[in-house]
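Work Package 3 committed the consortium to producing structural models of liganded targets before the mid-term review. Because experimental data for this complex are still outstanding, the team generated a predictive model from sequence and the ligand definition alone, so that downstream docking and mutagenesis planning could proceed in parallel. The input record is reproduced below exactly as it was submitted to the modelling pipeline, together with the SMILES string for magnesium ion.
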Amino acid sequence: MNSTPLLSMKGISKSFPGVKALQDAEFSLLAGEVNFLLGENGAGKSTLMKILSGVYSKDSGEIRINGELVEINNPRKAAAHGIVIIHQEMNLVPELTVMENIYLGREPINFFGFIDMETMKSRTAKLLQQLGSDIGSTDIVSNLSIGEQQMVEIAKALSYETKILIMDEPTAALTERETENLFQIVRQLAASGVGIIYISHRMEELFALSNRVTVMRDGAYVGAVETKATTFDDLIKMMVGRDITTRFPKQAAQIGPEILRVELLSRYDQLEDISFSVRAGEIVGIAGLMGAGRTELGRAIFGADPMDKGNIFIDGQKCSINSPADGIRAGIGFITEDRKHQGLVLEMSVGENMSLASLAYFCVNGFINANKESEMIKENIGRLKIRTPGAVQLVKNLSGGNQQKVVIGKWLATYPKVLIMDEPTRGVDVGAKAEIYNIMNMLTAAGVGIVMISSELPEVLGMSDRILVMHRGRIAGEMAVQEATQEKIMAYAAGG
Ligand SMILES: Nc1ncnc2c1ncn2[C@@H]1O[C@H](COP(=O)(O)OP(=O)(O)OP(=O)(O)O)[C@@H](O)[C@H]1O
Ligand SMILES: [Mg+2]
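The resulting structure, written out as tokens with the ligand in place, is given here.
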């Protein structure tokens, strides 16, 4: 006899204006398992989980917990059933401290009826310690990096009595060590009987962590399989409905003259005497651990942060870059890692976001050439396969991965000479990753030089021509891709 699942969702449908997000979707979860929810960008994963956690209401379908029919129409109801979600986009209040965020609205109260700061502080410290994080309980959230903020989200989730824990891309911004700690905790929770739903586009995590995989496509259920009994290729086929032949379709371009040169760039506390160059058609991968200064380097070159010392040459010409506008004018594009806050205007449409950085190209005598602009937008939506009912859809209504593609489209439209890409495929599904790599090939074939900052070593090894490894604000090592290995990169990254 089959035991009743902890959770079963059946026949779930949900529409938004112009979008059928879920169509007869289903999902089941056993106590003590890690069930990996897999699907392309826009497949409906986050929507299904938002229904389970009471953020959205379903149009139809049923949810059962331990066989009992339940109605979950708000987050409070979900919490009462022990359902806790770590959202893909973070939900913290930036002005508050870490502990205030974790216990917001349910602060421990002392004997006198006041908020018990000491208890709140020690409980927070304990949670953070459990996660192996050195964030302080009283740190203000806006001062934390995105990785640290993600840690706070996770600590917050762990502070509840949880029966079902939903993690929607929890590791997208975590360091290697933080990820390991998180996995440890996920395993412990599962062993203690918590059912865990885990969403990620990192296939490595699927095999490291899950017992079972549930695949969705176009808002519908495709199937669920035991992780042990499946392979990467099988899963991809279930997910996208076809084979993906190469994960890293690198095409070596004709390497031309030097296009970017950075000379002795320094920025207090963050960057020290950084020198390197990028040639036309070349992809220079920048590896390193989180906090090594990779994003800071990208920002300083682009003009988003001032540098204290150093020079930047584009096409051999010394450029004075003091703002992003200077950077863009010099021919530099920058795809930021923190796309939600720095790359997109969520309240604007897909089309408006895409032309933000390139308006100059579409302006003739002060007028915008609307035809040219909409042509570019249509082309980008098509080649990046952005899932949207149209260019007028607000960006905030797109799925996480599709928002990322909009940022990429925005910078492609500027025809940069040098494109700095900070974690270009984070949160993007396997098929779209390959698509982005193909676009990088196209750009390098056209003579663009690319600086690719990435924490994913397979990607660094798969797409770079040359690799720089940063450690504590300096370049600790450099190698041609032919002589690079994961071990070698890690050794430099650790300061060896
Ligand atoms: N609030 C909303 N308004 C309109 N459309 C929405 C809204 N939320 C989601 N959608 C649409 O529903 C579909 C499913 O989105 P969802 O966020 O569930 O995808 P996902 O599988 O989580 O993708 P990703 O891997 O990119 O995070 C997408 O087409 C998305 O644009
Ligand atoms: Mg999502």
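Reviewers should note the following from the model. The mean pLDDT is 90. These observations will guide the Year 2 experiments.
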